[in-house]
Amino acid sequence: MTKLAVSIHVESHDQALADAADAARRGADLVEFRIDDFTGQPDQLLDLIKKSALPCIITCRPDWEGGAFQGDESVRRHLVEAVGRCTRPPAYIDVELASYQHDREMRESATGAVDHPGQTRRTTTGLILSTHDFEIRPIDLYQRIEAMVATPACRAIKVAWRARSLRENLEVFEIVQQRHKPTIALCMGPYGLPSRILARKFGALLTFAALADGAGTAPGQPTIDQVRQRYRWEAIDEQTEVFGVIGHPVDHSMSPHIHNAGFDAVGYNGVYLPLPIAPSFEQFSATVEAWTSMESLHFRGASVTIPHKENLLRFVTEQGGEVDPLAQRIGAANTLTVRRESGKVRLHATNTDYAGALDAVCSSMGIQPSELKSQRVGVLGAGGAARAIVAGFAHHGATVVIYNRTFDRAAALADEMADLGGKVVAARLEKLCHACCQIFVNCTSVGMHPDTEASPVPAGQAPTGWGPGTVVFDTIYNPIHTRLLREARDAGCMTISGVEMFVRQAAAQFRLWTGCEPPIDAFRKIVNEQLAS
Fold first, then answer.
1. CATH number of the CATH domain containing 387
2. So which residues are the catalytic ones?
3. What is the total count of domains within the chain?
4. In a domain, 518, yes or no
5. What are the Cα distances from residue 15, in Å, to 10, 33, 39, 44, 86?
6. Is residue 121 part of a domain?
7. What per-residue confidence (pLDDT) applies to 460?
8. What are the backbone angles phi and psi of residue 177, rounded to the nearest 5°?
9. Is 400 helix (H, G, I), strand (E, B) or coil?
10. Is residue 215's pLDDT more than 80?
């Protein structure tokens, strides 16, 4: 079973012991003591190993391999020899392949300190031979792997490099699956998170996590709490299905929080990850095609956000997949579903933004979508969000009036959506005060954090009919209570925040992927907590 190791940069004996104890409390299986800056106290190091709350890996990484040690190599050799004589030996000693190959004395010191077939003394410590590249995937990667595998004293191999795209994670998974020896294989940097979380799925020896934000010893290292809680570490196995949010950037997306919590709630064997893809169709197409093609990955779907919603539509069309007709009409999709039928990949693209918006409105009003035929809807804005909202309401027969600062854009959108079922017309923004709509939807970004005191409704131009019986819906969810909603509520309107749309579009995705009823109340709670933090 893949172990979860917390890397600890050792600054002092007491600090490292406290951190190891903290790692144990948080659920780590072992710790890596990085002693790059702690090489002058061998007695304290041996005591640290002896008293550690968890089995440990000892690593003293030189600066030429991405570490912080800049001293003489003789110091490292003596430390390795001392650690090998420890009364409570570490689980592993990590030595760089380059050092082991080219420094005879280091090779002899390491070989003498670890367990291997030719060892004449009793020890349980294993040797990890490692290789790192903090710039790019090494050209001679497989030659390095072969050299490590061929070394009799080497119990486990470790390869890590900085990835330039998500596709490089797939090579990591393939390396682990080869199982020549117990293997640690990782991609570093912003594209490398899948290799760290899915190490358990593919059977790696271990993966590394940090104790806290900012405490990592390698680029892109998540915290142990994120690995265990947010990404469902204990639930991951060989059959775990993989989902994620595709966009650029996606670092602060709330989707991993809610979908992983949803998997927990319904007992679904899935994990949901942030999946950054550089903003071009070529990058999107190459990456998604590679991920869907790897059968053992069990990649089953993704939420797709800016700037790839149009790319998703094009990709699925070119791949011969199925595109939801309304998503095709909107010109953008936000949900990819991947199925395997008779060994073939089948792709489906849809847009749950409009579904989430309609669900939020209908649920709040206590009506069915079919009853929207009697409603008049005022939509503020004519951009991407408005396209989905207008199409959704028009498709269900509502009369839609599009208000926009640039009238020509509103008119163009109205013409495009005119034959969907409901009546769609354009109006100038200054006419908003005379609107006689039952439902108003803000699809602009006006009022979004940090400009929270702005409103898309000009001062003094609120519709004269605002009051009981009027619904005002803001698609913005940060802040939850925008100025628009506060003023509408003060006027007696029913208000709906963007949280409802976000939660309900995510629920529609969850239903598509899993076939399970999503825990909407749990989704809503998580989003509110994330926005409040």
1. 3.40.50.720
2. 132, 158, 309, 353
3. 3
4. yes
5. 7, 11, 15, 12, 20
6. yes
7. 78
8. -65, -20
9. strand
10. no
Domain limit, last residue, from 188, 207, 238: 238
Say if residue 419 is in the same domain as residue 472.
yes
Question: Are 181 and 129 part of one and the same domain?
Answer: yes
Residue at a domain's end among 171, 203, 238: 238
Q: What is the pLDDT of residues 501-511, one digit of tens each?
A: 999 999 999 99
Give the number of C-alpha atoms closer than 13 A to the C-alpha of residue 63, restricted to the C-beta side.
Answer: 6
- Compute the distance between CA of residue 196 and CA of residue 184 in angstroms, rounded to an integer: 10
Asked if 163 and 188 count as a contact pair (C-beta separation under 8 A), the reply is: yes
Task: Name the percent of the chain lying above pLDDT 90.
Answer: 89
Query: What is the arithmetic mean of pLDDT over 303-310?
Result: 96
- Residue 179 counted as domain residue: yes
What CATH number did the domain enclosing 37 receive?
3.20.20.70
Which band of pLDDT confidence, cut at 50, 70 and 90, is reported for residue 342?
confident
Question: 204 and 280: one domain?
Answer: no
Strand, coil or helix: 502: helix
pLDDT tens column, 376-399: 999 999 998 999 999 999 999 999
Amino acid at 111: T
Backbone phi and psi for residue 515, each to the nearest 5 degrees, phi listed first: 75, 5
Tell me: do 285 and 421 sit in the same domain: no
- pLDDT tens, position by position, 396-406: 999 999 999 99
3-state secondary structure 229-259: HHCCHHHCCCCCEEEEEEECCCCCCCHHHHH
**CATH assignment of the domain containing 312:** 3.40.50.10860
CA atoms within 13 A of residue 15's CA, in its CB half-sphere: 10
pLDDT surpasses 80 at 294: yes
| Count of other CB atoms within 10 angstroms of residue 300 | 19
pLDDT of residue 296: 97
- Provide mean pLDDT across the span 486-490: 95
pLDDT of 462 higher than 90? no
Torsion of CA 411, 416, 418, 422, to 10 degrees: -100
Return d(Cα 418, Cα 260) in angstroms, integer: 39
| Distance from C-alpha of 293 to C-alpha of 299, rounded to nearest angstrom | 9
Structure confidence at residue 526 as a pLDDT band (50, 70, 90): very high
384 and 327 both lie in a single domain: no
Copy the structure tokens of residue 233. 């570490």
Q: 355 with 505: CB under 8 angstroms?
A: yes
373 and 314, same structural domain?
A: no
Q: Which two tokens stand for residue 418?
A: 């005119």
Q: pTM for this structure?
A: 0.95
Residue 450 structure tokens: 């940090």
Q: Is residue 358 part of a domain?
A: no
With H, G, I as helix, E, B as strand and everything else as coil, classify residue 171.
Answer: helix
Residues 206 and 310 placed together within one structural domain of the fold: no
Q: Is-contact 268 512, C-beta < 8 A?
A: no
Whether the predicted pLDDT of 66 surpasses 80: yes
What number is the average pLDDT over the span 264-274?
A: 98
Domain span at 449: 366-496
Q: What is the DSSP letter of 221?
A: P
Separation between Cα atoms, residue 154 and residue 60, nearest integer Å:
17
